[in-house]
Design brief:
This protein has three helices and twelve strands, in the order H-H-E-E-E-E-E-H-E-E-E-E-E-E-E. The protein is of the alpha+beta class. The chain has two domains: 31 residues; 209 residues, Lipid/polyisoprenoid-binding, YceI-like (Lipocalin). An eight-stranded antiparallel barrel has the order 1-4-5-6-8-9-10-12. It is globular, with a radius of gyration of 23 Å. About 7% of the residues have low confidence.
């Protein structure tokens, strides 16, 4: 027969072990580790590292200095830490045994061009390869290939500017512009008008544009891919991006 003191010690030990296990479960399962949204301050740091002072003539304040064709540059920064070019999604979901979570998937495989003329962005054509979207869950990524986004059937998303966007007069190196762009966003084979809030910064012959736009899955004919582990996915989410452009 165990002595009372020993019994109490065993009980206390069990309680401590269970407490530590519960804390570990909360730490590894319940905390939301979604990467932060694109931020012009963070993107600007990458831009500073990528740009060589004096390589461009935008510092003159002449609007014509930024005129021309700008091409999406995947060589700036790194996708591993999201300091480079990427595009993707952000949706709230409810997971079995875990609770609320923010699902974020991104890909660095973005191509396209931006045309600037007479101090205005006159054209933007961007294409995103949805088959390489990467999140913190291989299961989620696999599901999106055949269900929901169905990237195996609809491998690309595109954005095309519908109306010119006027840039601030006298835009110079290091200055930031905040504008709203209206365009056509095609996802899952369905094209809808999208209003995108943008922030941009220029450094010589390199520029960065970050932004986001609300997106409703139903508007693009997408059925949320729920399952045993995913109880629900919000119909309303965000299409977000960080794009570096090089002139020439």
């Amino acid at each position: 027969m165990a002595r009372p003191g020993r019994t109490i010690g065993i009980v206390v030990g069990v309680v401590v072990v269970l407490g530590v296990a519960a804390l570990a479960g909360w730490w590894f399962l319940l905390r939301d580790e979604a990467p932060p949204e694109a931020d012009i301050d963070t993107a600007g740091e990458t831009l500073d590292e990528a740009s060589t002072p004096g390589t461009g003539d935008a510092s003159s304040g002449d609007a014509a200095a930024v005129d021309g064709t700008w091409t999406v540059d995947q060589s700036v920064g790194s996708f591993a830490d999201f300091s480079g070019t990427w595009a993707g999604y952000r949706f709230d979901e409810e997971l079995a045994g875990i609770g609320g979570n923010t699902a974020v998937g991104r890909t660095p495989d973005v191509t396209g061009t931006m045309t600037v003329a007479d101090g205005a962005v006159t054209a933007v054509d961007v294409e995103v390869d949805l088959t390489t979207l990467d999140s913190d869950s291989d299961r989620r990524d696999g599901a999106l290939r055949s269900r929901g986004l169905e990237s195996d059937r609809f491998p690309t998303a595109t954005f095309r500017l519908a109306e010119p966007v006027t840039l601030p007069a006298g835009l110079t190196d290091g200055e930031r512009a905040t504008v709203t762009a209206t365009g056509e966003l095609t996802i899952h084979g369905v094209t809808n008008e999208a209003t995108v809030e943008l922030q941009a910064e220029l450094q010589g012959d390199v520029a960065v544009v970050v932004g986001s736009a609300p997106i409703a899955l139903a508007d693009h004919g997408i059925d949320p891919p729920t399952g045993l582990s995913v109880l629900s996915i919000s119909d309303d989410g965000t299409f977000e991006f960080q794009l570096f452009f090089s002139k020439g």
